[in-house]
Amino acid sequence: MLGLLLSINNIGVGILGSITHLNIYLVVALTFITGMMLTYAGNNIGDSIIGKLVGKYNDLISGGLLILLGVLSLFFSF
Known about the structure:
About 85% of the residues lie in helices and about 0% in strands. The chain has helices at about 1-20, 25-45, 50-55, 60-75. Helix 1 (about 1-20) packs antiparallel against helix 2. The mean pLDDT is about 85.
């Protein structure tokens, strides 16, 4: 499932990269490296004590972040 979602994300990155006339090889390399590093870091954080503590409250945290994004979008134009 994660691979499918990352592939869909990369379609958007490719489209935006071509619209802005970026070097496609650089975009692909940076997207790959960033994706690998962040996936590795997220996996390690999730297995740590912090991940276990946050895991108990993941519904509350994700809901709070969505509410925060909604409030921020009222005040700022992203």
